[in-house]
Amino acid sequence: MITQDNFNQEYADPIEEQQIRHFVCIEMGRQIHRYIKAMHGSKQQMLRFEEHLKDLPMKEREAAIARYIDLNRKAIKGLDMKIVLARAMANYSDTFEYLVTLVNDKRKMVKYLNLIREIYIQYHEVIERKGKFGILDHRGRILVEPKYEFLRTCYVYVDDLRTMPLIAQLDGKLGLILPDGKDTIIAPFIYDSISLRDEPPYFEAKKGNKEILLNTDGEEQ
User: Fold this and answer.
1) Which residue of 4, 30, 67, 186 pairs with 176 in a disulfide if CB–CB is 3.0 to 4.6 A?
2) Does residue 135 contact residue 179 with C-beta atoms inside 8 Å?
């Protein structure tokens, strides 16, 4: 309960939170921009990534960036979330004195740091049940049923917000599926091996003596 005595400690300004989330989202987008550049992505690739984000409402942008980070975890390697938050607070503040007040408010700093991590650090987990593998999302919901003999999550640099298929094995054969909670099959379980490439098309498969390239839609190239 908020009282006059604890108002400064307990009250959360919804406008302040909304604006800080907005500026944090911009900073996280810039971080991915820098990651793409560091991975020698072209200007067109960086612009394509930004194009995917620009028209999304903020919550959808946050979710899209979180999904990207989950599949490209190196994108935030070494990133200090306190710096991200301080930059967002600086953009929100209209005076230096107010910025100093925000940064020195330990309660707010902890609150916003926890909020940022909750929004952007949403890593999935590979699970094993009775010798079969599946995947849970960060909330423990099933993304892939634990029925596969082998799963490989594809951590790969991509320049847009696509959901990358997983390499899965069923009844001794490999295929591609989506981690969408429906086990949607992208490429049928007919391949003897599937490996990941660093550039499109991202998958190289073998069927007998035949070598085949597969794109992210499971189409043979």
Assistant:
1) 186
2) yes
